[in-house]
Amino acid sequence: MPKVLRIINRFNLGGITYNVSYLSKYLPNSYVTVLIGGPEEAGEESSLFIPQSLGLNPIVIEEMRRSLNPFKDLLAYRKIKKIIREFKPDIVHTHASKAGAIGRLAAKSCGVPVIVHTFHGHVFHGYFSPLKTNIFKSIERYLAKKSNAIVAISKIQKKEISEIHQICEETKIHVIPLGFDLEKFSQEHDSKRKIYREKLQLKEDELALGIIGRLAPIKNHKLFVDGLEFAKKNSNHKKLKGIIIGDGELRTEIEYYILSKGMSFKGENADFIFAGWEKEVYKALPGLDLVCLTSDNEGTPVSLIEAQAAGKFVVSTNVGGIQDILNPKCGFLSEKGDHKTYCTNLLHAISNFETLNKQATIAQTEVIQKFSYKRLCSDMDQLYKELMGTA
Fold first, then answer.
1. Average pLDDT, stretch 234-240?
2. pTM of the shown model
3. Domains defined along the chain, listed by start
4. How far, in Å, CA of 99 to CA of 115, rounded?
C-alpha cells in the first residue's frame, strides 16, 4: 500500500484544506495518507474541523508559520524529517509555498522516492518587490528540480509557471483542477436563503452583493466598496447591501474606507455588513443575489467555484486561473486595474440580476461535475501511479 505524506502551509479556512482533506480521505483504499500542516494565523479561522469531520486526524506543526522565520522554519523542517523517517512515505506531496519549500527539502534529504508539489496560487506578481519576487522565483526553480512532478490547478496557471515565470519545463507540469463536495450548494436554496437573510436581518427587497475571503491587501476589498458606491449612484435599484464574508488584518482599514465614501457598516440601514467567517458557505450563498471578487492576484478562487455551484452570477477581476474556472454563462470579467469596467460590469449585473442568475443556474450541473472531489481523486491517483511506475 503506497504511503502518502501530504503537507499544507496551515490549517486556515479555505479551499486548500478542503482539497487535501478530500484527497486524504477519498483516494482509493490502496493508499495510506498522513496529513500535516501549520496552525492558522491571527485573524484567520481554523479549518481543522474540515479534516476532522471526515474522520481524519491531521498533525499540526506549530512552527510552520506564514512569515519567514529561520529559527521556526528550521524546527518545522526537523519535525517533518522526523515524521518522514517514522512514516517512510513513498510520496511526499506538498501544497502551496511554505509547505512546498520546507517539505520538499525534507523529503529530498530523506530520499523519498516521489516528490510532488501543487501550486494553489503563486507569489510571482502582486505580492512583493521585484527583488523579492526574483528571489522567490529562483527558490521555486531550485525546488522544481527536486520534484518529480508539479501540479497546476488550471491551464492558465501552467502557462504562467512554465512560460512566463519559467519555473520548470512544461512537461513536468500536470493540470489537475480543484475538487469539492458541491452537491449541497444546489440543494434547498429557498429555505437556506430565508434563514441566512433573517440572520443578517436583510429585507427581501434588498439586493445582497457578497464577497468572500480574507481581508488582505491582495484581495482589494476597496474595489468592492467602490463598486457598490458607483452602483448606488447609478442604479435604479437603490436598496443595495454589501455583504463582506471573512475577516483579516485590513478590517479596520476597510471600515474607515467605507466611512470615507460617505457610507456606513453599522445600523439597520447600513450599506455594508461585516458577516465574519462562515464555515458553512453553502448555507450563506443562497442568501446572496450576486457574488463579487476583486483580487489583484489569485490561484483558483474557491469562492467563485462555490458561487457557480449555488447558481449565482459572478462579477470578478480576471486574474490567476479565474478565466479557466468561470463558466461563460456565470459571470463578467474585467482586467486587473480597470476599475471603470469592473464598476460598469457590476452595475449591469445589478440591473439584470434575475435574468443573469437564471442563466447561471443552467450551468450549475456542469460546474458541479467539473469540480467534483471524485474527479480530483481519480486524476491524482492516475498521476501517482505514473510517477511510481504502476500505471
1. 88
2. 0.83
3. 3-179+372-388 (3.40.50.2000), 183-370 (3.40.50.2000)
4. 12
